[in-house]
Amino acid sequence: xxxxxxxxxxxxxxxxxxxxxxxxxxxxxxxxxxxxxxxxxxxxxxxxxxxxxxxxxxxxxxxxxxxxxxxxxxxxxxxxxxxxxxxxxxxxxxxxxxxxxxxxxxxxxxxxxxxxxxxxxxxxxxxxxxxxxxxxxxxxxxxxxxxxxxxxxxxxxxxxxxxxxxxxxxxxxxxxxxxxxxxxxxxxxxxxxxxxxxxxxxxxxxxxxxxxxxxxxxxxxxxxxxxxxxxxxxxxxxxxxxxxxxxxxxxx
Length: 252
Description:
By secondary structure, the protein is of the alpha/beta class. About 30% of the residues lie in helices and about 25% in strands. It has helices spanning about 10-20, 70-80, 90-100, 115-130, 155-165, 225-235, 245-250; strands at about 1-5, 25-35, 45, 60, 80-85, 105-110, 135-145, 170-175, 185-195, 200-210, 210-220, 240-245. It is elongated. The two termini are about 20 Å apart.
């Protein structure tokens, strides 16, 4: 049984993960951390992670960027592996995450979905066959009308998977309106749609002569990110210091 501290336990994703863990015999949340110290799930909740005195095998973090420094300090001090799911980190915080990984196991991914990360692996294979044969690569991502950033971090990560397979040969094109010219064959077009309550949809098109190959992932709820975080915690528990991502979880 993997024992976990849930950082940000009373936020939306914290509650989703608490519900999922309650149905999973392989993992248990033994403590939570949140400014809201309501103990809604039967485990103790601390206002600050530094106050947590409960032993655990891993920490799952869905909190806020303001909590990251304290989280990393605690993880290193207690030698507890940590899954960092909080987004919007500054360059300094990203560097701090990498520095912490030299002392403790740290897993961070642009998207915690097992499906998206499997898609990233598939894209590397597809790119070598299709992009290498001259197929154009385009990405369209769709999200709800409240999302602030565009394109999504996941869309960039998908483009990076293609580019990695092709030794960094591509540039990214986010706007075709300002340039009236023929498409550069060595660019990946990335376009964004914002509307309604779309949780997340990503399509990658490999467009060749007389044929198009499409790889697509659709998220129907945010629970998929919680499920991914739980699998990451199971994977990371007991691992040596190092920087891990969801690709490591998928490959086992």
